[in-house]
Each structure stands twice: as structure tokens, then as C-alpha cells.
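Homework help board

Subject: predicted structure for assignment chain

Our instructor gave us this sequence and asked us to write out the predicted structure in C-alpha cell form, then describe one feature. I got the C-alpha cells but I'm not sure how to describe them. Can anyone check?
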Amino acid sequence: MEIAEEVMAGRLAVVLPHLDERQRRMLAGAEARALGRGGIALVARATGMSRSTVQKGAAEVDAGVPVSSRVRRLGAGRKQLIDHDPGLLRALDDLVEPTAGGDPAAPLRWTAKSVRALAGELTRLGHRVSPSKVGQLLAGLGYSFQAPTKQNEGAQYPDRDAQFRYVNQAATAHLAAGQPVISVDTKKKEVVGNLANKGREWQPKGEPVRVDVHDFPDPKVGKAIPYGVYDVGANQGFVSVGADADTAAFAVATIGRWWDTVGSLAYPQASRLLITADAGGSNGYRSRLWKRELGALAARTGLAVTVCHFPPGTSKWNRIEHRLFSHISMNWRGRPLVSLDPPKRLCALRCPRRSEAFGSRRAPHPEGARPQR
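My C-alpha cell output:
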């Protein structure tokens, strides 16, 4: 598509300078109609014409006659705002530059100021301009309104790739032998109560879900601590929600509950269990309680338990983050998590391959039971 756009732009650049305004408009309209869906936007980008001009030319092509016989003289028409106010672009760039980010040599820059705030400041400085015009000028200057992106990972150890390869080889070997491989982690703590939750959902117009104006935790309810177990081979998720603290004992208790209710049934011949986990938190590699509880679990179940920790700072690569926790967040977006009461269904549930929602909308966990204190 980009190559076709470049070819068309080069072809029109040769012909358009020799045509008057009406002929240029009709030629652009004919090109847009020949391209079909999306042609108007494509021709507008290739020629530099406005979409309304190309649309008008397309309408004239459809009608077979020009809408108007008037032809604008070369250089006629309303002058651009920057022609009337030559200092406008400089003033706008001076306002944005102190807070602009990115490489100065890069073709694209971004700014955190809104177009409305910039328009107001420019008007105060004597440059009358609308917010929409500010947006157009910023685009012409190479700015883009963006959010920060998480890319700086800090120090990276030279053997990090080897660590990931080892984890992958261990998981592949266990799965090939029919042994269970699980990915575990704690999802971020959720405040329970009639409080606002990020996201939106369809509601009758003018009837949003009304929640409290503050986000202070209710001491009678507290916070929910979802701990998840994701079965890599079976693509199944299991979540247990705690109400006290995210401890190693709670983490291993969830793994034990998963094995008793789901894993032992799905893998009746299993003799080994591979756990992949982050390097910190309740399942961190330095936690003695985590190791002691896992030893007790191995002794009780008869499984040879192996734990592979991801390198520090690489928690986003944990499989459970993408295959289970993302769907939990989508499931309860835009709804207050008002209760810790568990749903009455089984704790194991197949993770959706695409984006099917699952679990209880109003409970702070898709499936699972509140553990005993």
C-alpha cells in the first residue's frame, strides 16, 4: 500500500501543477473513486489536499459535471494563520520544547501538554489560535501526543539469555515427558469495595455505575490478594484470593490446592512438577519460607518439585501475566469489586485463547475460594 501511494503521489505531482483548481480537484476525486474504500484518505495524503476537497472532487466525478464553474486564481483564497502571524510557530515550539522528549535528531517528538492548554497560553501571549489548529501545527512540527513507555530495564547480566534458554529447555523437557509445568505469580493487590475500577463497559446512556468518590480501603473488607497458578500444558488457570498478606505460605498453599483439586486429576501419573516464577515477592528465590513450604508440599504429594526463577527485572516475561492475569483484568474492568464472596463454580477454568471474559464480575477473582486466616 505504501509503494502504491508513493507511485500515485509521484504521478500526480507531475500532472497537477499544469491543471487549474477545478481540474486538480476532479482528478483527485477520480483517483479516489478508482481506489475504492479508503481512496479519499489515500489521495489526500498523496497530494496534500484536504479530505473535503477530495470528497468534493469525487462528488463531481459521480455527478459527471463540476459543482461550480468558478476557478480560483493562483494564490487566491484565505491565507493560513501562520502567514498572518509569522511568530506563531516559534511561540508554540518555545512552549512545548522545555517539556518535549525524545531524540532531538529523531523525526518525531512528543509533548505532555494538551492542545487546549497550549492554545490558552498562546492566546495569552497574543497569538489567537484554536485548540484544533494547535494540534495541526504540532503535527507539522513533528510532535505527537504520547504516553510514557516502559523500556528502560536497568542493568542486564550477560548470562540472562542463557537463563531464559535453560528455563525454556526445562519446561519443554517436562511437557514432553507429560509432567506438569506451572507458572505462578501474585497479581497486584485490589482494593475491595464500591470503588472505581479502571476501564469502561457499556451502560445505558446517563446511567453509569456510581461508586465512592475516594479510593480509601474499607478496613472491614481490606484488600484482595489474587495468587494465580497457570498450567502451561493444559492452558488452564487457577486463582486463590487472600485477604491477609502475600506470604510464601499463602503462595505454596495455593499451589497445593491447585494440585489437590486440579493437577492430580489432570496428571495422575506425574512424578515431577516444574514451577516457573519471578525472582522476588512471596515466591522469591531468597525466601527460606518459600523453600521450606515447597519441601513440605513435595513430601506430602510425592512430587519432585523444581523451581526455575526468571532473572531479576523480567517479570513481564512470566507466562501467567499474558495468559491469565490479562484476562482477569479485562473481565472486571469498569466494575467495582464489591465482595470477597467466591463464586460457586470449580476453581479451574480454561484460559481463553482470544478475549472471552470469564469468572464473576463482582468478585475480585474469576475463580477460587477465600483462604482461611
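Reply (TA_rk): Your C-alpha cells look well-formed. For the description, you could write something like this. The CA atoms of residues 215 and 328 lie 21 Å apart. That's the kind of observation they're looking for.
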